[in-house]
């Protein structure tokens, strides 16, 4: 084993270079307290064996990507993005989430659709296509919000924001909606007060 004359350096058994002591990980079983191979060689050796194990199991192997400082690779979308595009995660080794903000948002919408309506994005898109891409009620604005019956959970269609909000204001009451339609059409009527707090509706 080659030993360097520099007390602040060590010869790597892998790459055969004389490197600073900081380039070697600790190993209490060694006389000098350091591993015989530098961190870079150990990482390369581990990656090679990891690749062989994955290939032996018939699984894909992630290719190593050079990422500049202050950036991180998102394994979901495959893009290298600055740290500002990631949520914080104190439990992660780098303090960042495993997915970028954009991918987390997409997956959040997918979970919301499945959890609240039992739909996948493909099923939601097919429903919108069957409506011609427009709101079921106004037939003009783009369909964007899934509407469902709050009692049965049945999906009724996809509405625009305004029509979806209007149904919510009417509390899904068909009688109130019909009276609103009659009112808009000019067939206004008023209930007759027959007792304190008691009204008689016109027939």
From TrEMBL:
Keyword annotations: Endonuclease, Hydrolase, Nuclease
One Gene Ontology molecular-function label: endonuclease activity
The keyword DNA damage appears for this protein: no
Pfam families: Endonuclease_7
InterPro entries referenced in this protein's UniProt entry, alphabetically: Endonuclease_7 (IPR004211), Endonuclease_7_sf (IPR038563), His-Me_finger_sf (IPR044925)
Protein name: Recombination endonuclease VII
Provenance organism: Streptomyces adustus
Higher taxonomy: Bacteria, Bacillati, Actinomycetota, Actinomycetes, Kitasatosporales
